[in-house]
Fold this sequence. Notes:
The structure holds 2 protein chains of 2 kinds. In chain A, the strands form 3 sheets. A 7-stranded parallel beta sheet of chain A has the order 5-9-4-1-2-3-10, sandwiched between helices. A 5-stranded parallel beta sheet of chain A has the order 13-12-14-15-16. The N and C termini of chain A lie far apart (50 Å). Helices cover 27% and strands 29% of the residues of chain A. In chain A, helix 3 (70-83) crosses helix 4 (97-110). Chain A has helices at residues 16-26, 42-49, 70-83, 97-110, 210-224, 232-236, 267-273, 302-312, and strands at 2-6, 31-38, 54-61, 88-94, 114-118, 120-123, 126-131, 136-142, 147-151, 166-169, 179-186, 199-203, 227-230, 257-261, 278-283, 296-299. The model of chain A has no long low-confidence stretch (mean pLDDT 96). By secondary structure, chain B is an alpha/beta fold. In chain B, a hairpin with a 6-residue loop joins strand 3 and strand 4 (26-27). The chains are: A alpha/beta, B alpha/beta. The interface between A and B is large, with 90 and 80 residues. Strand 11 (179-186) of chain A pairs antiparallel with strand 11 of chain B, so a sheet runs across the interface.
Amino acid sequence: MTVLVIAEHDNASLKGATLNTVTAASRLGGDIAVLVVGSAAGAVVEAAAKLAGVSKVLVADSAAFGDQSAENVAAQILAVVGASGASISHVLAPATTYGKNVLPRVAALLDVAQISEIVGIESADTFVRPIYAGNALATVKSADPVKVITVRTTAFEAAGDGGAATVEHVTPVADCGLSKLLGRELTKSARPELGAAKIIVSGGRGMGSGENYQAILAPLADKLGAALGASRAAVDAGYVPNDYQVGQTGKIVAPQLYLAVGISGAIQHLAGMKDSKVIVAINKDPEAPIFQVADYGLVADLFEAVPQLTAAV
Amino acid sequence: MKILVPVKRVVDYNVKVRVKSDGTGVDIANVKMSMNPFDEIAVEEAVRLKEAGVATEVVAVSCGVGACQETLRTAMAIGADRGILVETDAELQPLAVAKLLKAVCDKEQPQVVICGKQAIDDDANQTGQMLSALMGWPQATFASKVAVSAGKATVTREIDGGLETLEIALPAVVTTDLRLNEPRYATLPNIMKAKKKPLETIKPADLGVDVTPRLTTLKVVEPPKRSAGVMVADVAQLVDKLKNEAKVL
């Protein structure tokens, strides 16, 4: 029995979300193989081969995989599963925009269900996943021969180094030619990524404007080495770019410390951050629902409290 | 050019659902039901493409119980031209819905299918991608901008860390993210007009699709509650607690 983990990467480096996915794979029993579908992704292969618990790294290298279109990556995964002669029992990918884009295609073409965003593993065929914005946890059992699963990365630790996997090249599938990447605009920031940050400073509608958001929150985030996040209200109001959004339909985060500033705490926002280890809420409204999930609440004017906090830490 | 828009009837996003005490699911009896918000964005986008003269017809499709007719009427009040209900009382999982939609696409031959990226009940985020794969079509998920012209679509997608723009050949599946557009409110005259638009009802068996669920739900529980925190008086006390009690600074 082999668990196949799909590596998320940008051809230059292995994304951290893959490490959490490997840990989830290790709870299933069986060998772990990591599949790297990319173009000249040698550094990614090297990093994957060092992960503890990984016994094999499969590499599908083709210029057509440079953009990692969902169509091509899914076709490659299917080819690998097909060639394994039914020895692959599970296919896992992180529940990031990358994994969510690719894996349902694989499930559909294997004619199996996908189990989305698992947060727990009961056995090799039974998993726990959140539904209704995390207001309920469902335990589901799959009757399919291959389990296709996306993993909520915040629910599993990152796998460490210490492995020495063998590297095996597989024949790349032909380019589907259905889709062409015209460009990527990635938010450039010296701060940590939201998904990987130990501390997140997040702002809501209470910030009042994009200028205030930057002037008040950025210095605090810089001092703490924190990532910046936002509620849907702040994103909708145009204070920050869309990829700052934490919540049911944005990013799901679980840092050591989550500082919610001027965020009221709609259930859709809470769904994205309530697994954080420590939550601090600063809001001038003592009735704000965010205080019901906060470990430490401070009823104060954020324009006074946050600069004080920045000076004090 | 025809656009197909699948719409799902879900518990309204303002309702905080309760887990049933017997652990079999969430209690959705007597709660407000609405169109899945991402599907509303999908209908709006399709109707805008029609208004811009790019599309000629917008067909809304829903799979589920008879009451999904209301969801289809909502789609038609926004501006869809007609509705198709694939009616069944059976539990439908994303793979089954994707197969039903494939059968509808085979019949209707749309050039573009616009789906919501996920439904806010099961939060699965699968159906659009599955449909695209079953059709052998390209996909552009999590769209924040869509332009359609001459056999292709240019779609800006929201990805972790930023945006990406794809050019895909039609026919194709697009799934909507939150900020693709702001759906209009249906006006009373349009709600009245929608009642007269054609609505066809078919059964999964008519489409030759087996909708048997692949996943069995063993139990549904409430997530662990966070224990109540404390209120601090000022910033100094907050910093002290974070350093010495929580030890996160």
